[in-house]
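To: structure subgroup
Subject: Chain for Friday's discussion

All,

I'm putting the inputs and outputs inline so they're searchable in the archive.
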Amino acid sequence: MENKPQSPPVPRRYLVDGRYRTEAEVMELFGGGRRDLGSVSEKTRKAVEILKGHAGRLLDIGCHSGWLVHYLSETRQDIDPFGIDYFEDYIGIAHLLYPEIRERFEVMNVYDMDFPDSSFDVVTNIDLIEHLTSPLRALREIHRVLKERGTLITSTPNQINFATIKTNILLEYYNRAMFRLKKPTRLGYDVFFENEEWNRHIYSWTPHTLNTLLREAGFHYRYHTITGGGLLARLVPGLARELIIVSEKGPGPEPE
């Protein structure tokens, strides 16, 4: 019986920002994985700065392309980093960009992590919590895998920022006018790419509401920063774009 010629393997494509991309496109998009600290987002740089005071086993949840895990593995001998993401394409991208540390990346769901209790000294989640359908459940699972007095670094867009306030004011002026004219009003969605199930914002947080959520999950507040958004945000820092709260597992002093 004559053997049929085998078809060449189909090259893998990765879904990024709503579009499937080839390996070459992914390498170009992420700078071959060799971006320096100055080329990443301000919130990621802030997380790196915060981590200067910490050491031990670190878990980056929602690790995306894996940059933070790679950077820490290259620059911090006192940190043992590991990254998870439930989106398989991003773990595939991390493996593509950083094959020398591919064992540090794994597909995993934040609601049910395959780690023993008290496995990590530090957990980071950079712009993750606003995407989650059950943020309290996720934080309780993070609480489980974090060691007692371990540190959690959480970043998310600050709900009360200049851009959001401007958008809401202009939209409601428009809707008021449409209502008076008996025409349809409108309201948008925070969905960025319809074909990426995770890529939308379900919740938004102020510093106080996020701190309340963290407290409900068993963390206590240590400090926070609000950053990003240009000159106006520097003049009125409470209205900056990005919120980062550093909290600790375990009971702490009651807020004043």
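Points worth raising on Friday:
The mean pLDDT is 90.
The helical segments are 23-29, 42-50, 67-75, 88-97, 135-145, 162-180, 207-216, 230-235.

D.
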